[in-house]
Design goal:
single chain; alpha/beta; six-stranded parallel sheet; five-stranded mixed sheet; 6 helices; 30% helix; elongated
Length: 236
């Protein structure tokens, strides 16, 4: 946790004093091992960053006096379209993608995505939010991403995606294309990453028709979480 993330309900009587009794208290006590009088980096969810000074710390509650006023880091200029990965991988990726500053994420269906993945409890609103908050704490950010679920590939790519990608650099990662991975440019990017094994030829054709240029990272097949980190790292 690189940032103690606060919510409006944490403030006592609308003042600059906050009181925490949940996992954040445990983290400050057991992981950070902070003491009264020490200061920690804090941020208000969907708001500014700042500093909090510990005024009281016990086994049941943490109280801090906070001062906010610094803007959160700028969002990554990337809209990510990601074929829904395996549930356990999804949890890790939601936090990782958030920590890298991506603010718009579309989880989409693909031929190689198991239909059962869409039934995972990790796709509930509360489960997604939990991972997004962990990503914000890791990345020192306060602005929650927006996550969209698209369970049908063809209607999404044909009806919604052209408008979504208009005016951006539209890219799709696809093994075997021969084109090298691009580096960061000045344009906003709409990036599509498929499941392990990649999109099938029909899906690549649909994406290309929507204006996407394909590229590859190299001759090796990568796991989805590795590919996501490597590609975002090049584009950020």
């Amino acid at each position: 946790m690189n940032l103690l993330l606060l919510e409006p309900g944490d403030f006592v009587d609308g003042t600059s004093t906050i009181r925490l009794t949940d996992r954040r208290l445990q983290h400050v006590r057991e992981v950070l091992r902070s003491q009264v009088g020490e200061s920690l980096r804090v941020g208000l969810l969907e708001g500014p960053l700042g500093e909090g000074r510990i005024t009281a710390l016990g086994s049941g509650a943490l109280e801090m006096s906070v001062t906010l006023g610094h803007p959160p880091p700028p969002p990554a200029p990337i809209t990510l379209l990601l074929a829904l990965p395996r549930p356990k991988v999804l949890r890790r990726l939601l936090a990782a993608i958030t920590s890298m500053g991506v603010k718009t994420l579309f989880l989409i269906h693909s031929y190689r995505v198991e239909k059962s993945y869409w039934q995972t409890p990790f796709l509930t609103e509360s489960a997604i939010r939990k991972q997004l908050l962990l990503g914000l704490e890791q990345g020192g950010d306060t602005l929650l991403p927006t996550v969209h679920l698209r369970r049908r590939f063809k209607p999404f790519v044909e009806d919604e995606l052209p408008g979504l990608a208009e005016g951006t650099q539209a890219l799709v990662a696809h093994p075997g294309t021969g084109s090298p991975a691009p580096s960061r440019g000045d344009r906003t990017v709409t990036l599509a990453i498929g499941p392990e094994g990649g999109f099938i030829p029909y899906e690549i054709e649909r994406l290309q028709k929507a204006g996407f240029a394909s590229f590859q990272l190299g001759p090796r097949a990568l796991r989805v979480e590795t590919a996501v980190a490597a590609i975002l790292g090049r584009l950020l």
